[in-house]
Automatic annotation (TrEMBL):
SUPFAM superfamilies: Nqo1 FMN-binding domain-like, Nqo1 middle domain-like, Nqo1C-terminal domain-like. Belongs to the complex I 51 kDa subunit family. GO terms for molecular function: 4 iron, 4 sulfur cluster binding; FMN binding; metal ion binding; NADH dehydrogenase (ubiquinone) activity. NDH-1 shuttles electrons from NADH, via FMN and iron-sulfur (Fe-S) centers, to quinones in the respiratory chain. The immediate electron acceptor for the enzyme in this species is believed to be ubiquinone. Couples the redox reaction to proton translocation (for every two electrons transferred, four hydrogen ions are translocated across the cytoplasmic membrane), and thus conserves the redox energy in a proton gradient. The keyword 4Fe-4S applies. PANTHER family: NADH-QUINONE OXIDOREDUCTASE SUBUNIT F. It holds the Pfam family Complex1_51K. It comes from the Bacteria. Residues 315-360 form the NADH-ubiquinone oxidoreductase 51kDa subunit iron-sulphur binding domain. It comes from Bradyrhizobium yuanmingense. Keywords: 4Fe-4S, Iron, Iron-sulfur, Metal-binding. This is Formate dehydrogenase iron-sulfur subunit. Its cofactor is FMN; [4Fe-4S] cluster.
Amino acid sequence: MIDPRSLDDYRAHGGYKGLARALSLGSDAILTEVTASGLRGRGGAGFPTGIKWKTVAQAKADRKFIVCNADEGDSGTFADRMIMEGDPFLVIEGMTIAGLTVGATKGYIYIRSEYPHAVEAMNAAIAAARRGGYLGDKIGGSTTSFDLEVRVGAGAYVCGEETSLLESLEGRRGIVRAKPPLPAHHGLFGKPTVINNVLSFAAIPFILAEGAKAYADFGMGRSRGTMPIQLAGNIRYGGLFETAFGVTLGELVDDIGGGTFTGRPVRAVQVGGPLGAYFPRALFDTPFDYEAFAARDGLIGHGGIVVFDDSVDMRRQARFAMEFCAVESCGKCTPCRIGSTRGVETIEKIMRGERVNENIALVEDLCNTMKFGSLCALGGFTPYPVLSALKHFREDFASLATTLQAAE
């Protein structure tokens, strides 16, 4: 419908209405709107956006920053890329409103290096916004100043974690910081910082333009608004599907996705990226909702859904989760750095038929240590795919033990 790099096209389709209203409201009223909308972080944690912004707004500092986490590294996810390439001004407007709200004058968009077209599109849109008076000094004819800069990552998955991202932005290796202090108090260059995902900032212009209620009317429970859900893997109709929270996993996979591409039965669905839990068909009645997934030991994450048919080997999937963590770990904490490596070794022993039951118990104990002892979500969430594979697809592990016992 639009040329993504045309400011006139963006404005012709309602662009910058949200910023215009935000400029007339002021900080406190904007915070009220964002909080009332029920918007939660779309990067995976699901933390209420209004509370995060209020914390930064109330912090005392000579400078504050807005950071957009566009380091979209989860398997089967591409919503951030599509938005940045297809509607970049939406992200810019959302970040500008955030800067106006909390008193920040500078923002950074941290984009993964594997997204060169998104980097180009965002830089072009930022230049156009500056020419149009929507970035820089006196934005939108006001007395407020705010500017943006794109920074490109260096290929580290762990930089999707907010404190590791900040380290990278500051020019250092991406290593996770201990919390507290929280970035809202001590973030980029030691200053109060709002860090949100691309999808979070992209929701802000609508909320300000149409009002909090218009956004909150979508969804269920504490999960308000819409979520761009990415369908990938062994699926007939892959792609991006934006819908309100509350649609069931079965509707997403069977009705919208059309089942598997191979035509074989769906056996497992991983929701939430490589650290998400595997759900069997028995859990397809689960509503797409933060609390509903958490109640079943799963997580929504960034909204990625990867489908597997009945030919999948869940032992190999469990091993892959541990291997992924071992490769991508920043190495700062022992449970993640050592636990994932020992996890790969132990699952390989299971796959070779060595003391299967004892090693399964060892993997479960190891997952417990990683879940509660890791410094960040990389090590803390790796147990989700491993434990869900053991829980819901035990036959892939137990059948080997039974076969070996019968042979003996």
